[in-house]
Amino acid sequence: MSAIPDAEALYTGLLAGVKALLRPETKLVGITSGGAWLVERLQKDLGLPGAPGIISSAMHRDDFARRGLSASAQTSLPFDVNGTDVLLLDDVLYTGRTIRAVLNELFDFGRPACVRLAVLVDRGGRELPVAADFAAAKLTLPDTQLLALARADDGAFSLKVEENK
Questions:
Q1: SS3 state of residue 37
Q2: Which DSSP string corresponds to 53-114?
Q3: Mean pLDDT, rounded, for 40-52
Q4: Can you tell me the mean pLDDT for 43-69?
Q5: For 31, phi and psi rounded to 5 degrees?
Q6: What is the mean pLDDT of residues 22-40?
Q7: Helix, strand, or coil (residue 130)
Q8: Which residues of 69-83 are buried (b: 16+ CB within 10 A; e: fewer)?
Q9: Long-range contacts for 38-44 (Cβ within 8 Å, ≥24 apart)?
Q10: Which residue, 5, 9, 14, 108, is most buried by CB atoms nearer than 10 A?
Q11: What 3-state class would DSSP assign to 132?
């Protein structure tokens, strides 16, 4: 297994990458839960007005029958999606299935002009043709392991590896 990178150092890279992707009309949308944590901090650190969007993949997952509705935050998009430049944020890009579900959820709210994706870590292992416009790091892990973002009480980020159940 590769060494687990420092999440705070990766966040600094993500901040620079997102700043380079921003257009005047860009709205940030974080995917629950790790992406939501990232987008809250990015919105503040970039000095963007208003609240960022939060989006859940729960209602459109292809494994909904097995997983059910998670206790994580539900979708909240405090802007009109129609014609908007949306920059999705997530912590870990893996199979692409969460992104597919999130796109379905996003289009339930309207038709954005453009949707791009920035992630903290791209761990490969794609099952769908999904690619990030920016990834702060690329990391390879065995399929038996999950990589998850954690947030401490003081807001500091860390990455942890768990065995896939």
A1: helix
A2: EEE--GGG-TTHHHH-S-SSPPPB--S--TT-EEEEEEEEE-SSHHHHHHHHHHHHS---SE
A3: 97
A4: 82
A5: -90, 130
A6: 96
A7: coil
A8: eeeeeebebeeebee
A9: 38/11, 38/14, 38/89, 38/90, 38/91, 38/120, 38/149, 38/157, 39/89, 41/11, 41/155, 42/14, 42/15, 42/18, 42/89
A10: 14
A11: coil
Q: Which amino acid is at 72?
A: S
Alpha-carbon dihedral 103, 108, 113, 117, rounded to 10 degrees: -20
Q: Say which residues have a Cβ less than 8 Å from residue 98's Cβ, sequence separation at least 6.
A: 31, 57, 61, 90
How far apart, in whole angstroms, are the C-alpha atoms of residue 164 and residue 142? Answer: 10
State the amino acid at position 49 in one-letter form: P
Structure tokens at 159: 């990455």
Work out the number of other CB atoms within 10 angstroms of the CB of residue 44.
Answer: 11
Contact present, 122 and 99 (Cβ < 8 Å): no
Angstrom distance (rounded) from CA 112 to CA 140: 32
